[in-house]
Amino acid sequence: MKRLVSLLGVLILMAATAGMASAASTYATSVVDYDGYFMNWDSVNTFYHNEVTEYPDAGADLSWLLGAEDQTVAAGWGGDANGGTLTLYYETGFTAGGTDDADIIVYGFGFGYNTPFSLEKGAITVYASTTGEDGSWTVISDYAGYDNGSTWEANPDFTQSAPGVPSVIMEIDLDDDISNSYDGVINYLKFELGDGETGHGRAFFTSAIEGVNAVATVPVPGAFLLMASGLLGLLGIRRRG
Length: 241
Prior knowledge:
With 241 residues, the protein is of the alpha+beta class. It contains two helices and 16 strands. The chain has helices at residues 2-18, 222-240, and strands at 21-22, 26-27, 30-34, 38-42, 46-48, 73-77, 85-94, 104-110, 124-129, 138-141, 146-148, 151-153, 167-172, 186-193, 204-211, 216-217. The protein is globular and about 40 Å long.
């Protein structure tokens, strides 16, 4: 009897943990859309342009954005960019972690300019959505190109870096006062270069965009439930006997 009860307890624990959401890193599974003058960079060829400028017929290779960081490759907008957007889909969505740690990490490189080579900073605005539909987007990292006295400040989440030196350039904490609150699962991210005006925005390249708190609910295997039901039945019979 004790062994039966112990086995039943183990099965119940396994079933319970199997149905829980696990936290881990997740990466984009597809590129939904992009526009603007996208181009590639790699450690061998450095920067190179592409003949077509709009998705899905563009020449830019964006497969590098679909996976973990690779410091030898990147894709994005070059120094002659005139604004643009990039939208990614995450089959395994992610949520805010409820801590001070970053929930989204962007690997790549880029300048903080909004108007190229001027004092005006800005760089990037980031939006999130569960469905990707019009009207569902929430700003989670503000462009925030504003004049702070005698100097301009870029997006506080963005760290500009030297061209061709991939590193962490954005760390977005969905729980801080830089971002707007976002409840629910994020399955879509959209990046907008500069403040969206023609001629604004300069040099933003990414090699990976990581969602830290992945929501991957594992279904409870039917065999567990069937076995647990059988053991419960046996336990009932033993008690009546």
